[in-house]
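[agent] plan:
  1. take the single chain provided in the ticket
  2. run structure prediction with default settings
  3. attach structure tokens to the ticket
  4. add a short note for the reviewer (M.T.)
[agent] executing step 1
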Amino acid sequence: MKRKAIAASAAVLLLPLSACGGSAEAGDGKTVTITVGYQSKTINTVTAGTLLRSLGYFEKNLNALHDGHIYKVDWQDYATGAPITAQMTAGKIDIGSMGDFPLLINAARGKQLNKPTRLVSVTGYNLRGGLNTVVTSPGSKLSTLTDLKGKKISTSVGSAADGTLVRALQRAGIDPEKGIEKLNQQPAVGASALSAGSADALSQFVAWPGLLAYQGRAKALYDGAQLNLPTFHGVTAREDFAQRRPAVLEAFLKAQAEATDYLDTHPVAAAEKVAKATELPAEVVYLYNGAHGISTFDPAIKPQLVSALKKDVSVLKAEKLTGDIDVDSFVDDQYVKKALGADYATHLASAPPTAAGEVWPKGAEKTTEFKSATDLLRYVAGHKDGIRAAYVPDATTGTLWFADKAVWVADGDRLLPFVAPATAKAYAAAHGGARVITYADALRRAS
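[agent] step 2 finished; step 3 output follows
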């Protein structure tokens, strides 16, 4: 059954498609439609999708080309990267955004069908792997990866979240093929399965883990950042499109850079815009895309990310989703280098912001940062009715999480937050006198 589910997941990429799209000229020879595939609810692609669309920067840059054409943009929204790849290899999407594992499948299918695609930029990334999380139901007694042995775990086969699950299980000494029952499901289906009790755990990518935790429908079991392996989302373009319309692709990448600048300088406003377009809670969007969010945005194709992509190939090969993939030939940074110009070297050398706690007061247009978790808790305790959301970085991985959903440890006068119970217990065991406490106790101690 597992093999059939995996085969079906891969086969969907090759199904014939009837949707219209792709770079196309109207009968007048002047009007050109550019088709962009994006994932509105995969919110660390927003600078190439949801946020970019709402800001109108791509359309503005196209209008500035003055090359005798009238450009229109057809934005097509999908739940995952697989259908975007299918449309691209059918010549019906010009530019798409998706996660690192789907990007590799995109490269493999493009080569297989002689419709090559190229990775042309990066959207959001986390150098430790914190974009993916394994969660369980709120009342679950499961608290460690070893507890998952023999359990039903929902994930989307071929996704970055699946890759995190496979690697995490292997490190825990569990065979990801025989040691668990893997349910190959779309994120929304998996979330429902977890709530219904037909899945014991769920491994998914942004924004599902944070959303379910925020809604009280799940709690974190494993922070993907514990793998300490980069994970990211990026932009892929059809090679024939890029070669035929390089100025259009450059206009898109310049627009992406502008959207990234907007997100960096107006993180709260950007979160509100994405929330409005996706109907996700703005508090969840900010968890990932905020000033100290789990995701860092930068269009540059960093060497660390390319290296991680090469390591990902073995996971997909083991699941028989791809064969060998020439990552170096798939990566094509010439267009983003031209779009960013002299600033490209600066982008390559940039690092994620230092982790910090933040409180989003009700009615505020910006958050307040705190140097320590104790200071943040003290503020929250004194303003309980005026807090929209409070975020704290995991004491070991730096992954941001909701303060009231974190696992807290008291170590003398220090109050330390953790995303998952296992890491909190491990810290307490390694530090004499430290112990796991409730959030209510942490607030009381801080105040």
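[agent] step 4 note for reviewer: The chain has three domains: 13-127+231-349, 132-227, 357-446.
[agent] ticket updated
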